[in-house]
Amino acid sequence: MYPMQNDDWARDKAEFAASPVHAPHPAGNTDSSPLGRQFAQLTALLLNADTVAEALEHVVRATFAVVPDADVVSVTLRSADGILHTPVETDPIGAELDRLQNRYGHGPCLEAAQEAMAYKHSGDLAGEPAWPRFGPAAAKLGFASVLSTSLVPDAVPPRLSGALNIFSRQRGKLGDDVVRDRALLLATHASLALAHTEAVRLAELQEAQMRRAVDSRDVIGQAKGILMQRRGIGADEAFDLLRRMSQDLNVKLAELAHTLAARHTEIDLLGD
Amino acid sequence: MVDGRRYQRLWRLVTARARGRDFSGWAGVVCVVAVEDVGVDGAAISLRSSGRAQELAAASGSWARGLEELQYSAGDGPGVEAFTTARPVFVTELDRAGQRWPGFLDTATGLGLAAVFSFPLQAGAVRLGTLDLYRREPGALPADRLADAAVLADLATGALLIDAASGEGASWAQADLPGHYDDVNVAAGMLATALRISVDDAFLRLRARAFSSGEPLLGIARSVLDRRLRLDLFLD
After folding, report:
1. Boundary residue ending a domain (A204, A223, A242)
2. Distance from B12 to chain A by nearest Cα, in Å?
3. Taking CB atoms and an 8 Å cutoff, what residues of chain A touch B144?
4. Left (φ > 0), alpha (ψ -120 to 50) or beta: where does B85 sit?
5. CB B3 to CB A185 under 8 A?
């Protein structure tokens, strides 16, 4: 017989994954700290969350709990048209703060949602030179400090990009490393929660995109080889030639490559 | 449902690793964590399709990379099977696996592979590729480690989706960069032109040459590219 462990995977996977952890692990020690417990609880909640909004709601609550200076926490999502949406917040004023940034076209949540792996911090919103209109407006609403951390880094549509935002009513807060690290960890949780809950919806689309990218790279390579052999030229030259032909004929590079690879014995190229 | 504590612990290992300076995509981080946590000697993530096209998304090192390339060369192997059947493939004693993967087994054993654990990466109804864990020692993984590996396969699926969506980091996800197996495709195009045969036929001849010579397919392809290997050697 085969030395195999194959079985009904769906059933076994659940069983395997549910079996208790016996071996001690260095990373497991933080479970005993209050912060560790918060994260443990958060992850358990995220795994049971049915919707993106529900998952983000848990992240927002956990952020509120582990950042002592937080007065308002929100998650901002940026849609393909660049508009900020505020699906979850600990206070309705979170949505108002996003609306202000939409109106002025600048602000921490907007910028963190646009940039990969970014933090945007200010400990003095009233006098913040980076946000000359949003800063004073936020100060008028009673906020002095802000920390926005990007969610999914460098996302492309249809995936939403976003930011986890923490506002404090006190000046000079939310700028130290401890808060930053916690925010990054929480934002990572939110990003992965987004990735997982969106995965099923987006997977088919992305799978098709990935598959197309892999396939078209294959035929582009093959077309390069065909041109190299026909013309006695190098790989870079062949790629340039391919690109020029694609422009001249107004045909997509991958399509041209595909035609060349599929019908190269019949096609005579100019100059052959 | 998946054990939350286990998920959380592995998640934390992955995110902690992802903050390192050498970050080049989430898939790579999952491979590193798989090696360290599951206790295997190599881990790799490949995008696979029902056809020949494959892409190496990440490997923990050159040994694992070589074994993925071997599966590409051979067109069979544990990852290929895990992908095709949508089930994990565990072989705990490779030298007793008989004629299961004729193109893969002998060379893999020669490279020191003794046990392999391949997981299909499934997102909903869609299969993206596999997480392949390679070990130099024969034997089953303890249930606890196997459970970790299963969770890491889930994380690997998310990792691929995130890597594919982000513009930086993972080179395989960037459409304008040549793929890992580009040289094989270029060589197939050259050979097809020289012998006036189809690209598919050319690919099969390259593969046959790799099989009979014991040299990796990428190596054969590079010999063709460098014109070190005469193309008329591939005539029937």
Report:
1. A204
2. 8
3. 19, 21-23
4. alpha
5. no
Q: Give the ipTM of the model, two decimals please.
A: 0.84
Q: Is B128 on the interface with A (CB under 8 A)?
A: yes
The two structure tokens encoding residue A77: 């999502």
Same-domain status, A108 and A188 = yes
* CATH number reported for the structural domain that contains residue A210 in this entry: 1.10.10.10
Please tell me which of the candidates B19, B140, B189 has its beta carbon nearest to residue A222: B189
| Residue A26 covered by a domain | no
Number of domains comprising chain A: 2
CB contacts, 8 Å: A17 with chain B: 2-3, 6-7, 147, 150-151
Amino acid at A26: P
- Chain A contacts in chain B segment 203-222 (CB below 8 A): none
Distance CA B48, CA B219 (A): 21
Residues A200 and A212 placed together within one structural domain of the fold = no
pLDDT at A117: 60
Do A192 and A247 lie in one domain? The reply is no
* Nearest of A184, A8, A6, A150 to residue A78 by alpha carbon: A150
Give the integer Cα–Cα distance in Å for A38 and A182. 11
Domain at A134, CATH number: 3.30.450.40
Beta-ladder partners of A72:
A167
Q: Is A57 helix (H, G, I), strand (E, B) or coil?
A: helix
Each residue of B51-109: pLDDT tens digit? 788 899 999 999 999 999 999 999 999 999 999 999 999 999 998 877 889 889 989 99
Verify whether the Cβ–Cβ distance B193 to A230 is below 8 Å.
Answer: yes
In terms of CA atoms, which chain B residue is nearest residue A203?
Answer: B123
The answer to whether residue B184 scores a pLDDT higher than 60 is yes
Q: Please indicate, yes or no, whether residues A89 and A194 belong to a single structural domain of this protein.
A: yes
The count of other CB atoms within 10 Å of the CB of residue A197 is: 19
Per-residue pLDDT of chain A in tens (272 residues, 90 and over written 9): 333 333 333 343 343 334 333 333 333 333 445 666 666 666 666 656 656 667 777 888 888 888 889 999 988 877 655 666 666 677 778 888 888 888 888 898 888 877 766 789 999 999 999 999 999 999 999 999 999 998 865 444 445 678 899 999 999 999 998 898 888 888 887 777 676 655 444 455 556 666 667 778 889 999 999 999 999 999 899 999 999 988 888 788 888 898 899 888 777 654 44
In CATH, what class is B4-169? alpha beta
| Residue A10 belongs to a domain | no
Determine, yes or no, domain membership for A98. yes
Where are the alpha helices (H) located in B19-54, listed in sequence order? 26-34
Nearby residues of A252 by Cβ (< 8 Å), 6 or more positions away: A246
Identify all chain A residues contacting B194, using CB atoms and an 8 Å cutoff: 229
